[in-house]
Design the sequence.
């Protein structure tokens, strides 16, 4: 068996911030990412979903060493990543950001934006560089002439295509897309999502696809990890998650999506805001908002466990949920298209 493309083992990222404590100003630890483990295979999309502030961007940034991990291991093609091997990783794994307007240098023409990574990594120059940039622009649905434009001369969707071309330039095997379509109009979102899917097939790319929008994540992902307050609380295939959501938090997120297939599913209202990751509640971190919480949930934190084959859940009542939903394993959901 070959190693997964990316393996994250028990990754932790804590921020120490100054804040008002009980006795005047003190230091507080924000547990942005608090023990996260997962794998992504070559050519696979893992969706990462959760409410604002649950740690998605911090996790994405820590994987690329844009933030130094507090603890944990990151392996790329089975090799542990260390701070020294970051340069190599930065080529093999690229990031596509939320707001292409803010993430593209405004005074640089498209040809510089897309060509720079090729020069920096010593992959092309001169005519070969110009040819490669033109090919990349065509690849993402732009025209070779767009190379001579500035970001402000392009639409939001075109700018995001430039962001994608820049990421693709160095032929990565993994792209981390952090809210890549969140700032775009719905019709443009669909075009960019389809472009990403198309590029995945052509280049056998793997994606870590980060979004607060479970509808978008479902459309894009082979598997989904649901994050709550720095931790993964459920992870399985997209079809299985849709058919048998075993964590009450996932069920609440799912029932918030308008769906023609949603008939008969009991709607679970998600009330209030997530707690402060600098001061999380004891026990299960979701218990203050959970519709089925019992006293054990206030005291004991549930571990992420494989309740049915290929389906990981952190909930004391996952077994009850799986019986209620008739979940017998991922096979039962094999014919479902998300
Ligand atoms: N540099 C930092 N210093 C201190 N706290 C931080 C820092 N970066 C993030 N945080 C905190 O870590 C937590 C997770 O933030 P993060 O941006 O990763 O969440 P997110 O899931 O990406 O949210 P969103 O959906 O809004 O993008 C938040 O409480 C945030 O305030
Ligand atoms: Mg974010």
Sequence:
């Amino acid at each position: 068996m070959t190693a997964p493309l990316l393996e994250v083992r028990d990754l932790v990222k804590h921020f120490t911030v100054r804040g008002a404590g009980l006795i005047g100003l003190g230091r507080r630890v924000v547990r942005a990412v608090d023990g996260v483990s997962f794998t992504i295979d070559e050519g696979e999309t893992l969706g990462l979903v959760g409410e604002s502030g649950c740690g998605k961007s911090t996790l994405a940034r820590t994987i690329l060493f844009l933030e130094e991990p507090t603890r944990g291991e990151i392996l790329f093609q089975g090799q542990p990543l260390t701070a020294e091997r970051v340069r190599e990783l930065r080529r093999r794994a690229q990031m596509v950001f939320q707001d292409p307007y803010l993430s593209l240098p405004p005074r640089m023409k498209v040809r510089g934006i897309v060509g720079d990574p090729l020069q920096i990594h010593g992959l092309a120059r001169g005519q070969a560089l110009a040819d490669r940039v033109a090919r990349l622009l065509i690849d993402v649905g732009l025209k070779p002439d767009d190379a001579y434009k500035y970001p402000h001369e392009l639409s939001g969707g075109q700018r995001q295509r430039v962001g994608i071309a820049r990421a693709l330039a160095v032929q990565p095997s993994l792209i981390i897309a952090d809210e890549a379509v969140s700032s775009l109009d719905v019709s443009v979102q669909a075009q960019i999502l389809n472009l990403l899917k198309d590029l995945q097939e052509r280049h056998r790319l793997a994606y870590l696809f980060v979004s607060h929008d479970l509808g978008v994540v479902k459309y894009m992902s082979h598997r989904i990890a649901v994050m709550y307050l720095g931790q993964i609380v459920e992870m399985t295939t997209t079809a299985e998650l849709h058919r048998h959501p075993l964590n009450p938090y996932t069920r609440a997120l799912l029932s918030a999506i308008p769906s023609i297939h949603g008939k008969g599913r009991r709607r679970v209202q998600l009330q209030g805001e997530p707690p402060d990751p600098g001061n999380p509640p004891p026990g299960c971190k979701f218990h203050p908002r959970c519709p089925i919480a019992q006293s054990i949930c206030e005291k004991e934190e549930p571990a992420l466990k494989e309740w049915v084959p290929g389906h990981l859940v952190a909930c004391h009542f996952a077994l009850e949920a799986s019986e209620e939903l008739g979940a017998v394993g991922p096979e039962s959901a094999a014919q479902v298209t998300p």
User: Anything to note?
Assistant: The pocket of magnesium ion (ligand 2) is lined by residues 56-57, 178-179 (CB under 6 Å). Residues 260-264, 329-338 have pLDDT under 50 and may be disordered. The longest helix spans residues 186-203. Residues 239-329 form one domain.
